[in-house]
Amino acid sequence: MSALLSVSGLVKHFPIRSGLFGRANAVVRAVDGVTFDVADGETLGLVGESGCGKSTTARLLIGLIQADAGRIMFDKRSIGETLTLTELRRGVQMVFQDSYASLNPRLTIEDSIAFGPSVHGIPGATARALARDLMVKVGLDPTRFAGRYPHELSGGQRQRVNIARALAVSPRVVILDEAVSALDKSVEAQVLNLLLDLKEEFGLTYVFISHDLNVVRYISDRVMVMYLGEIVEIGHVEDIYAAPRHPYTRALLAAMPSMDPDARTAEAPLSGDPPNPINPPLGCRFHPRCPCAEPICATTDPGLYVAGARGHLAACHMVIPGSGHSKAQAAA
């Protein structure tokens, strides 16, 4: 499959200002040189601890914030160069975590969904008809819900409205930023199944951000793991879950809740907090918390390296032959 979204060397630093004149004396390295592709029709799961750069990456992809460096290509067109922001918003839409804050409390559900098409030039009557059709697609009866306001709906119903609103401009990519994390489990399962049905019906591509690794495994084709603004592992979902190659990925998977009493976590898989993103450690950024760290890890950034079949990559010296790590294979 060809890449629908292609990201190369993406960087976003947020300045920290202080003093009388608000001068920037430091930066938070939220996203620091990220490169990846999203194939047409796939679901890429994006995971990592809070503060790793997941949501910042999502906002860069949709153009809500501007990158400091790097290039984002959508359908082989560069954002900001050959692709305008208006064209980008028609091709890429986003569903946020907070379903209530995402909706205008003064607009009815029908008007909220019809607003996007109207902005893009679709006549009002046609936009409202489209809104009602999409309400049916997401499981909301227009005769009951079209005239209601956001505060009259449950969290699951509001998120269905947000999904319908995202689909109203016929996007090819939908970014879901913790879109089901605020829902209870029964509603979460319904929304996940809805997303899978809509993906098949409309031929969508998803970037799915979540802290719930079980949900990511259920919905994703590939998984990308981020740590402190960098990608540490990326690969096919079954390869990542069956044989993770980076110690951080293994720690995340070890922390997953299990219904098996024999598989309980006896001790924390990781200790300590992530390092300060203002001044990240040299070398591998995970080395201060890594149980496998050796001197080479503190001095040399491993970069992403081929760690298996199907494009499996990991940023770890242990997967690089001849890297100098005791657990690495000898160079060929």
What report would you give on this structure?
This protein is α/β, with parallel strands linked by helices. The protein has a domain of 84 residues. Helix content is 31%, strand content 23%. The chain has 11 helices and 12 strands. An 8-stranded mixed sheet has the order 6-7-8-3-9-10-12-11, with helices on both faces. α3 packs across α4 and α3 packs parallel to α6. The longest helix is centred in the middle third of the chain and has 18 residues. The two termini are 31 Å apart.
Which whole number gives the mean pLDDT? 90
Q: How many strands appear in the DSSP assignment?
A: 12
Helix content: 25-40%
Q: Structural class of the helix and strand makeup?
A: alpha/beta
Note the overall shape. globular
Which H/E pattern describes the elements? EEEHEEHEHHHHEHEHEEHHHEE
Largest sheet: 8 strands, mixed
Total DSSP helices: 11
Taking all Cα atoms into account, the compactness measure Rg is 21 Å
Which strand-content bin applies to the residues? 15-25%
Terminal Cα separation, in Å? 31 Å
Poorly predicted residue ranges: none
Which sequence of strands runs across the widest sheet? 6-7-8-3-9-10-12-11
Summarize the structure.
The two termini are 31 Å apart. With 332 residues, this protein is an alpha/beta fold. The protein is 31% helix and 23% strand.
